[in-house]
Amino acid sequence: MYHPALFSGMNVVVTGGGRGIGLEVARQFLDCGARVVVHMGRTIPLDRPDFLDLAAGEGRALLCSADFVETGGVQVLADEVGSRFDSLDVLVNNAGTMVGRFPAAELTDEEYRTILQLNQTSVVEMTRAMLPLLRKGAHPAIVNTVSISARTGGSAGSSVYSATKAFVATYSKALARELAPEGIRVNCVSPGTIATDFHQRYSTPEKLEATRKSIPLGRLGTADDCAPAYLFLASHALSGYITGQVLEVNGGQLIC
Ligand SMILES: NC(=O)c1ccc[n+]([C@@H]2O[C@H](COP(=O)([O-])OP(=O)(O)OC[C@H]3O[C@@H](n4cnc5c(N)ncnc54)[C@H](OP(=O)(O)O)[C@@H]3O)[C@@H](O)[C@H]2O)c1
């Protein structure tokens, strides 16, 4: 665990923070002293963890919801952040999912648009909306969630999703160069196969077990395994000379 004051006084936004990887990232930023706008997802669930309500009650967390696939959905969140923060130190663009497994010949226009809007366009929109606040932050950093599938191509039915993650990785590298003169760093965390709701929806137990056997460290990852990488890349003290990089968190599933 990082020092409890590592992000003391800093303003952080985490998207897709209602469950899975984003929830653990939000928890660890809160534990390290940050004020966090936690975008919980499309809704604010009633059965949320106690630590979020405690932090919200103390004014350290603001819980909000926005559907990034709906027209104007990202702007709803951007407006919430603007009403809460005068400046932003860390933006974590994490919301996303595969949406479904779609064989290439059967993919509908609507499915294609949904996968792109959620995993790709929303990252561009949120980044654009947050840049004025980030420019007022102290040593600002953007950390985007990509995926091992951006490098491997993913598995059957995930071609468009995997390509959106490759887009975000490349977008982040270009942005890192563009924003470096302003002192804004941009990096990515690339999770491997992480045991969250994500795979409960899109992968069978048999597929997950076969994947587990292929992972050199011998197990699937957890949100706990991923979150420290986000805090590391967000912290000027820990990674102030790192920008434009993708940090792979996958137990050795991809070594190249
Ligand atoms: N788990 C893995 O193995 C893995 C591997 C590589 C990359 N990733 C990436 O890691 C990130 C987090 O994944 P996870 O495993 O933590 O998945 P998760 O548990 O399914 O969480 C996904 C988050 O994204 C939000 N989201 C989904 N659709 C949305 C929409 N239309 N508008 C706004 N928010 C939406 C969800 O909110 P709702 O509750 O509203 O759905 C939820 O908060 C994603 O970008 C994912 O692609 C995951």
Short description:
The protein has 256 residues and is an alpha/beta fold. It is built from ten helices and seven strands.
CATH topology: Rossmann fold
- H/E series, N to C? EHEHEHEHEHHEHHHHE
Relative helix content: 40-55%
What is the annotated CATH architecture?
3-Layer(aba) Sandwich
Shape: globular
**Attached small molecules:** NADP nicotinamide-adenine-dinucleotide phosphate
Q: Largest beta sheet: what is the strand line-up?
A: 3-2-1-4-5-6-7
What is Rg? 17 Å
Structural class: alpha/beta
CATH superfamily: NAD(P)-binding Rossmann-like Domain
Tell me what portion of residues adopts beta-strand conformation: 5-15%
Can you identify the CATH class? Alpha Beta
Number of strands: 7
The number of domains is 1
What would the average pLDDT be, to the nearest integer? 97
Description:
The chain has 256 residues and is of the alpha/beta class. The chain has a single domain, classed as Rossmann fold (3-Layer(aba) Sandwich), CATH 3.40.50. Helices cover 45% and strands 13% of the residues. The chain has helices at 20-31, 50-57, 73-84, 109-134, 149-152, 159-179, 197-202, 205-214, 223-234, 236-239, and strands spanning 11-14, 35-39, 61-64, 90-93, 141-145, 185-191, 246-249. Helix 1 (20-31) links the parallel strand 1 and strand 2 (35-39). Helix 4 packs parallel to helix 6. The longest helix is centred in the middle third of the chain and has 26 residues, at 109-134. It is globular, with a radius of gyration of 17 Å. The two termini are 28 Å apart. Bound molecules: NADP nicotinamide-adenine-dinucleotide phosphate. The site of NADP nicotinamide-adenine-dinucleotide phosphate has 26 residues, from helix 1 and helix 7.
